[in-house]
Design a protein that fits this description.
The protein has 336 residues and is of the alpha/beta class. It contains 12 helices and 12 strands. A 6-stranded parallel sheet has the order 2-1-3-4-5-11, with helices on one face. A 6-stranded mixed sheet has the order 7-6-8-9-10-12, sandwiched between helices. Strand 1, helix 5 and strand 2 form a beta-alpha-beta unit. Helix 1 crosses helix 2, helix 1 crosses helix 3 and helix 8 runs parallel beside helix 9. The longest helix is centred in the last third of the chain and has 18 residues. The chain starts with a helix and ends in a 10-residue tail after the last strand. The model has no long low-confidence stretch (mean pLDDT 92).
Length: 336
Amino acid sequence: MNLKDIASQAGVSTATVSNVINKNYHKVSDETREKIEKIIKENNYQPSVAARSLAGTKNHIVGLVIPYISSMEEFTISPYYVYMVSALERYVRNRDYYLMLRCVPDVHSILPFLSAWNVDGAIFIGVLGSDVSEIKKGLKAPVVFLDTYTDENVVNVGIDDYRGGYLTARYLIGKGHKKIAFASPDPATGDVVKERFKGFSDACVEAGIEFSLEDVFRTDTIYYNAIAVGQNVALSGKGYTAVAAMSDIVAMGVIEGIKQCGFKVPDDISVIGFDNINEGTYITPKLTTVEQDLEKKAELASRYLLNMIETKEETFVNEKLPVCIKERDSVKNLIG
């Protein structure tokens, strides 16, 4: 069964069948559409996605790119990525689109692939600002960025990272902590962490709390690597009473490392995370963290992209969602 066979049975042209398959219903009468759909269903006909892509027709595929993931890594090591992929897939699916996921070490390498598949649009998570321009030029389809800092005219959905870092410091200082360690990737290499670090530093300066790069413990966002950070903080001899981790997965690793050194959280050293992923409620003590609305972020990114695809109207917006402190049990109040 092919396009010509369906057209012959329905007594219409192949162009009419193609319009029904590609959901261009405004070009076909209801009676003809129902006749063609019945033939397709009875013969279990499955149109070739690759053929539709090569023909340049709309194929209801949205690309999702997670960059800077090497061939030896898995995105599932980050609960944040897992949640975002799950939420984005749900929103895209509910609008009758398919999500095509790709993890890449270099965002430039994925552009020919997305173009070859003729994706209707794409979402990029956590792209560096320096890569945005080439993505826009290399992909002739609507694009939405998540957690990206750029001066380019794009659609970006993120959070107020500066305020998140600022709130973290103010919260710990308000609990009486004056010697605080900062656990994150190098603040000089990523725009998101850079903003959080700046907010944290400014809050310390305002409160008269000593804080410098010597108090920064660098780590990637991998749980087992963050355990070493917890150990280093606990055994540093610098008298840290709290650790501000810039992701929940790092915070959980830090807690484990502190415990392995015979210290208690929060009695000896407090820990605060960032993101408010579900796993933070599974550990002991339950993790105090900076909460961001991950669901809203996924909803907005999907809505902006699919609306651009369907209206063919370009949109420019930089949406920064608010953050707040989610207080649980991992920070001790040293006052009183």
